[in-house]
Specification:
Blueprint: E1 4-7, H1 17-26, E2 32-35, E3 38-48, E4 51-52, H2 60-71, E5 78-86, E6 91-95, E7 107-112, E8 116-120, E9 125-126, E10 133-136, E11 142-146, E12 152-159, E13 169-171
Antiparallel strand pairs: 1-10, 1-13, 2-3, 3-4, 3-5, 5-12, 6-11, 7-10, 7-12, 8-9, 8-11
Length: about 170
């Protein structure tokens, strides 16, 4: 079973990871917990309900990439775009994110995911390549493990357009 597909979106390159980590450490109080049973996983919305956060301007590579996705027609609009941070040597336990089969319309873009993976029940471990985006079948039980001594940083983009059966999706090798 394939629960993770690499998308053919333009890669996100040149993001200053140190700046993101600095923002997370100084602005930790601005980051919300994602799930009650994963206190070491937090996020911050750069776009929420189609509106840009004032902080978005401080991450021009991410802002330009998000605008390129829309301009190129890869997605119609971005409802939500958030920075997701999982602390070093932590995990997000087994869970599901939706109650239907198929790929979630949201997709993940890996920014700093060395020595971490997502694993699906009855499937395999998937390792993300930095800068690339992935569609996930989040109705399948899965977990995320960060074995690194560094923060695991991803973006989650929730577009208006569904990506299920999207011709831009390519099978993850």
């Amino acid at each position: 079973m394939i629960n993770c597909k690499q998308l053919i979106h333009p890669p996100l390159e040149g993001v200053d990871i140190h700046k993101l980590i600095h923002f997370f450490k100084l602005g930790n109080h601005l980051f919300g917990e994602r799930y009650e049973n994963a206190p070491h996983w937090k996020s911050f919305d750069l776009i929420n309900n189609y509106k840009y956060s004032p902080m978005f301007k401080h991450f021009p590579k991410i802002k330009n990439w998000a605008e390129l996705l829309v301009k190129s027609g890869n997605i119609s609009q971005i409802i939500t775009l958030y920075i997701s941070v999982l602390a070093p040597r932590q995990q997000i336990p087994w869970h599901t994110d939706m109650n239907r089969p198929g790929f979630n319309k949201a997709f993940i873009t890996a920014l700093h995911c060395d020595n971490s993976f997502i694993e699906f029940k009855d499937d395999k471990k998937y390792f993300y390549k930095s800068g690339y985006s992935y569609a996930l079948q989040t109705g399948t039980e899965h977990r995320i493990i960060n074995m690194s001594d560094d923060y695991r940083i991803t973006l989650c983009t929730i577009p208006k357009k569904e990506i299920e059966n999207d011709p831009l999706a390519a099978r993850l090798a």
